[in-house]
Each structure stands twice: as structure tokens, then as C-alpha cells.
Design brief:
The chain is α+β, with helices and mostly antiparallel strands. The chain contains nine helices and eight strands. A four-stranded antiparallel beta sheet has the order 1-6-7-5, covered by helices on one side. Strands 2-3-4-8 form a four-stranded antiparallel beta sheet. Helix 3 crosses helix 6 and helix 5 crosses helix 6. The longest helix is centred in the C-terminal third of the chain and has 24 residues. It is elongated, with a radius of gyration of 28 Å.
Length: 305
């Protein structure tokens, strides 16, 4: 799903392409893409684009007269730009927005259609599209900590909840936690101690570091179809230092301890020769019961002779 870094790339790329341009026509391939009926979609035609905004994980295109086109790309939605006079792709598009400067198309991979388009009026209609999450950029440490502790969830779930934090999804949340060297399954109620307060301080810094890493050679163009490596990186994502740290840390390390708790039920595949293997109490009880049953069978067989 396009998240805060991806949406920032979209906004920067569209800023130079459609701001000041006139929206001449909107073509929808599926009526289910449009989720609003008032005002009608025809009301957006012929209006000039005045500004662009990000509202959570949504892109908002501001038009004359206080109208806003709000695009929610969901998981598989992607935008593609074709400058005026260039041939368009024959790929099926859910929507085509024809501007005086070119054509913006919306595609969605897969058979399920989750992307959504809303046409709302005024600031009140636009704010109704905002889930209310806190923006990581510009938030103070006290605001961030208060929002993180407002509900007892795992760190991963708290970071990706749009009602708590704005624009953070699975990929962005994972990178933030990796950069901060924190386990995603740590409960937010456990961050009241000194180590937890240090963790809270690391999370915003990690988010800023991920944002700086997102500034790559692709910042000036609209990203293409998602294949796991966004164009803004210019290559594969680097493996964070949290993974080798989790492997080499001692048993007292919180990441190592939580990993061992999660993986305790997995079998040990190391060679069994030359080392004793502990037997669980339940298994030992079953073995003793099996020996007693075998002894009774042997005694009964000897008596029958």
C-alpha cells in the first residue's frame, strides 16, 4: 500500500504536473470507484487545480470552488502520468483524469477493487476523510508518547493504526521499528520504564532516518507499478542492523528473549549425535506409562504359558 514516503513522492511529482492545469474530463471504467454522489462528478470538469494535499493515506486534489478529488489507492492502486502529446498505455485503467497538461490514470492490480475516489466540498468535507492520526513530522516527543500509550497494542499495530498515526503502514512501520531496533510485538504498556522511554525517543528519530533514505533519484517522477522495491530507493532495501543484532545478542536482550518465546515451539534441527536431549515432563510420564504397560503384557504372556 502506498504510504507516507510513497505519497510524498506522488505529491512532489504531481505538483509540477497538474497544479495550475485545468481538469478537462474524468473517465471512470467502474462506477464502484466513485464513493460519493453529491456533488456530482461532472461538477469537477473545467476547474483548475489549485493545490495538493496528503490526508492520511489519501491524495487530495484541490480544485476551484472548494472541490476536492480524494484518491485512496488502498493496497494495489497506482498512478501513471502521460504528458500531453505522448502515447498512452493500453493498460486497463479504473479512471482517467485528463488535464490540460496531460493524463493521470489510476490502475489497480488484482481482481478485487478496493481503491476509492471521493468528490467532496469544502474543508469540512476534506477533514471528514481524515482518520485523525498524528503526523510524525512536526510532532513533539510528548505528543508522540501520549498517542503511543493511548491504547494497549503491540508497537506494530499502534504505529499502523490510522487513528493513532497518519500515513504509516506495514512497510513504513517495519522500517521504523528496524531502524529503532525494537520488536514489533512489544506491548505499548511496557514502555513506561526507562528502557521504554528510550525506545519512544528512538522511534521518531528512526522515522526521520527512513524519510531521508526515501529521498532517492526517483523523487521527481511518479513511481511505477509496485514490485517490492520502490523507484525512490534506486535499488534493494538494505538489511537493517536489527537482524544481526538480534542473532548475536545475549539471552537477556529483549529482542532475543521475545524471539525465543515466539520460536520455542519450533523443532531443533541440529544434529542429535553426541549430546543429550532433555525430555519434557509430559513426555517422561508417557514413557514411564509405556514401560509399565509393556511389563504387564510380558507378565501376562508368561503366566499364560
Amino acid at each position: 500500500m502506498p504510504e507516507l514516503p510513497d505519497l510524498t513522492v506522488y505529491l512532489e511529482a504531481l505538483q509540477a504536473r497538474i497544479v495550475g492545469a485545468r481538469l478537462e474530463q474524468v473517465q471512470l471504467a467502474s462506477p464502484f470507484l466513485l464513493r460519493t454522489v453529491t456533488p456530482p462528478l461532472d461538477a469537477a470538469r473545467g476547474r483548475t487545480v489549485r493545490e495538493l494535499r496528503r490526508v492520511g493515506k489519501r491524495l487530495a486534489i484541490g480544485l476551484d470552488g472548494g472541490l476536492w478529488l480524494v484518491l485512496h489507492l488502498m493496497i494495489a492502486g497506482r498512478l501513471h502520468w502521460f504528458a500531453a502529446g505522448t502515447p498512452r498505455s493500453r493498460r486497463a485503467a479504473l479512471a482517467r483524469f485528463e488535464f490540460s497538461s496531460g493524463t493521470l490514470t489510476l490502475t489497480e492490480a488484482g481482481s478485487k477493487r478496493r481503491a476509492a475516489l471521493h468528490l467532496v466540498e469544502g474543508e469540512a468535507g476534506l477533514q471528514a476523510q481524515d482518520p485523525g492520526g498524528l503526523e510524525l513530522q512536526g510532532a513533539t516527543l510528548a505528543q508522540f508518547a501520549a498517542r503511543l500509550r493511548s491504547a494497549n497494542h503491540t508497537l506494530k499495530r499502534a504505529l499502523t493504526d490510522p487513528r493513532l498515526f497518519s500515513g504509516v503502514g506495514n512497510a513504513y512501520g517495519d522500517e521504523i521499528l528496524h531502524a529503532a531496533r525494537l520488536s514489533p510485538v512489544t506491548l505499548t504498556r511496557r514502555i513506561d520504564d526507562a528502557a521504554g522511554r528510550a525506545a519512544v525517543r528512538r522511534l521518531p528519530r528512526a522515522a526521520a532516518a527512513v524519510d531521508r533514505a526515501a529521498a532517492g533519484p526517483g523523487r521527481g517522477r511518479i513511481p511505477g507499478e509496485s514490485h517490492g522495491v520502490p523507484h525512490r530507493h534506486g535499488g534493494a532495501r538494505s538489511l537493517r542492523a536489527a537482524v544481526p543484532g538480534m542473532r548475536s545478542a545475549g539471552a537477556a536482550h529483549p529482542l532475543r528473549r521475545q524471539r525465543d518465546q515466539l520460536l520455542r515451539a519450533l523443532p531443533d534441527r541440529r544434529p542429535a549425535a553426541g549430546r543429550s536431549r532433555a525430555v519434557a515432563p509430559a513426555e517422561a510420564g508417557l514413557a514411564a506409562q509405556h514401560r509399565r504397560a509393556r511389563a504387564r503384557r510380558l507378565t501376562a504372556a508368561a503366566a499364560s504359558r
